[in-house]
Amino acid sequence: MIPVRIVGLALDVKSQPVVILKPLGEEPGQGSMLPIWIGGLEATAILMAVEGTPPPRPLTLDLMKSMLETLDAEVERVEITRLEEGTFFAEITVRSPGGLRVLDARPSDSIGLALRTGTQIWVAEAVFAEAGIPDQTAEATDEEAEVAAFSEFLEHVDPEDFQG
Questions:
Q1: Which 3-state string (H, E, C) describes 117-162?
Q2: Phi, psi (rounded to 5 degrees) for 98
Q3: Per CATH, which fold does 2-162 belong to?
Q4: Is 127 within 8 Å of 82 (Cβ atoms)?
Q5: Domain ranges of the chain
Q6: What Å distances lie between residue 58 and 19, 49, 64, CA to CA?
């Protein structure tokens, strides 16, 4: 498993949200990135967590976090585990008084919950090998430069590029 961070959230040429993950320790323009296409609502939930913007009312992931805390449980690990026919799969490991439980989940929900709970996100090496792309972005000097670089990347990529 490879520990990752979110380096971008953008729209592709078809206005589909994409979350971009990158291994920890890799600098901009080095190594690889992993684009995962997600839904619009999920993108909004992730963006709010990245920006630290509180929602006017709890979103589903905020409710999940609150439920876990109320039940004396915590998210121990979030993993993007596999890619099948262009669909990413994830698991959330929860530690509770009853022990460890591994839950099947969508990557978008897993990422959103990890951001809310401060949990590390991991990606299986096989997923990076299959769907990772070279990071050809230049080192950004500010957020606008990063957004421009991802927009440039997204103008030339299509979800079908990552289907097996």
A1: HCCCEEECHHHHHHHCEECCCCCCCCHHHHHHHHHHHHHCCCHHHH
A2: -85, 0
A3: Bifunctional nuclease domain (3.10.690)
A4: yes
A5: 2-162
A6: 22, 12, 10
Does 9 have pLDDT greater than 80?
A: yes
Residue 80 identity (one-letter amino acid): I
Contact (Cβ atoms closer than 8 angstroms) between residue 56 and residue 38: no
**Torsion sign (Cα): 47, 52, 34, 139:** positive
> pLDDT tens across 123-133, in order?
999 999 999 99
Angle at 3 between CA 2 and CA 4, to 5 degrees: 110
Give the 3-state secondary structure of residue 16: coil
Q: pTM for the whole thing? A: 0.79
CA distance 68 to 116: 12
What is the rounded CA–CA span in Å between residue 158 and residue 75?
A: 33
Question: Is the Cβ–Cβ distance between 5 and 25 less than 8 Å?
Answer: no
Radius of gyration of the chain (CA): 16
Q: What pLDDT, in 10s, does the model give residues 50-78?
A: 888 888 888 899 999 999 999 999 999 99
Which tokens sit at 158? 């299509």
CA distance 71 to 139: 43
User: Which residue type sits at 36?
Assistant: I
